Amino acid sequence: MVESKEMNIQREVDIKHAIPPKFDYKKEKVAIVKLDDYEPENIKGALKSILELLDLTDYFNGKTVLLKPNVLTSNEHTFTPCELLTGLIQIFKNEAGVKEIFVGDSTFTKNLTSHYLKKSKIKEKCEAEGAQVFNFFESEREKIDIINPPYSAEESIYLPKEICDTDLIVNMPKLKTHTGYVYTGAIKNLYGTLGNKQKMHIIHKNKDSFQRMLGDIYFAIEETNKTDKPKVLTIMDAVVAMEGKGPQFGKPRKIGLLIAGFNSAAIDIMGYTLMNGDPNDLKAITSVANRTNLPIDISQLEIVGEKNYSDYIIDDFKKPKIKTLKGTGYAMKWMPIRLVKLFLKMSIKINKKKCTLCEQCVNHCPASAMAKKKDKIIIDRNKCIECFCCGETCPNDAISAKWYIFRIAPYLFVLFGLIALAIIWVVFFL
Ligand code: SF4
Ligand code: SF4
């Protein structure tokens, strides 16, 4: 969906006055609970504290609940730990009176989703606790129009029937960096509910538009809410986060917290702040915060539990280098950066020593910008939309993203041509 800048500005103005009438996101609390490890007993204690801090002890009674983990691959720290899922299932089943429990997600394709649900043991362990596990690529879908607040990038979202029919969703992201979008947390984790991800990358080549679309998914899920309370509760795993080359090949970095609440933007404000980032830089956060009248100011969040969150901020948390150039906040407001960005392009690099020519990246590139030619993978840089899906899907950490001055080359060519012409004119005609 291509939109004019004027339309976007008008929409931003309109949505400031369009809070969903069902509940006030701004008033929702953010619970922060200390959790040092993934020991089942410690997890249960932390999850129970969250339910108490958010006054949710009776909230789930008689309801159906779907847990939405982050299933990316089966590498350690790329997916929501089984212990966190099973711990919550046990509490819901044995203490919270939940009627039925489901777990569901999708990653790149139907087959890869089944593969990683199995290899991560999420399927086996959740089913052993009595939860039904869904691969959303196999789901029927319902068209949900986004009405209140109005859509920002997509008018309608096609959601899995299981998401629409379940009373409550517990969104369980892992706090990680993302080489293409800097950060992945509460709002981005809901992308796993879509079945047409590759198409969405093509429609929203522009990173701002893509991030606003992520917010639309969140509001589409709330449109399916049949109660007068919020439908999506987020419990974010910030026990061991991921820094550097996230979301798959970064390094684990311990923070030691669970973060929970009903406003996904509030959770991401907290999550990105713990990475020592400025939430104003990320359009996914600002888009949802604006639409829920939530100030993008951590000091204005109602924090319960570990109120001393600043003690947990990691000053040297390694964020992708893309941050400084692709950010939509301070980086883009600073004129020299805006000018420099005109000349830069992300370069996807393949490490030939690590590449096994499995072609997984080729098959998942939304822009068909990759191909296998003899004994190497080649990239058509003119087609590349800088989404980093290839890096997310590569099983061998063979893909990295760097910034190169591709765009400056034509300008330099013209500049040197003009200088040469000027010299010729001075030497021969003056
Ligand atoms: S080459 Fe990689 S970054 Fe470029 S469009 Fe394809 S998947 Fe996206
Ligand atoms: S997914 Fe990774 S290993 Fe497979 S062909 Fe692409 S770069 Fe090589």
Task: Describe, in short, the structure shown.
This protein is an alpha/beta fold.
Question: Your description of this structure?
Answer:
The protein has 430 residues and is α/β, with parallel strands linked by helices. The chain folds into two domains: 8-312, Rossmann fold; 343-410, 2-Layer Sandwich (Alpha-Beta Plaits). The chain has 17 helices and 16 strands. The strands form four sheets. Strands 1, 2, 3, 4, 7, 8, 9, 10, 11 and 12 form a ten-stranded mixed β-sheet that branches. Strands 5-6 form a two-stranded antiparallel ribbon. It has a two-stranded antiparallel sheet with strand order 13-16. Helix 3 (82-94) links the parallel strand 2 (64-69) and strand 3. It is globular, with a radius of gyration of 23 Å. Residues 348, 365, 367, 369-370, 379, 384-390 line the site of one iron/sulfur cluster.
Properties at a glance:
17 helices; binds iron/sulfur cluster; alpha/beta; Alpha-Beta Plaits; ten-stranded mixed β-sheet; 430 residues; two-stranded antiparallel sheet; Rossmann fold; 16 strands
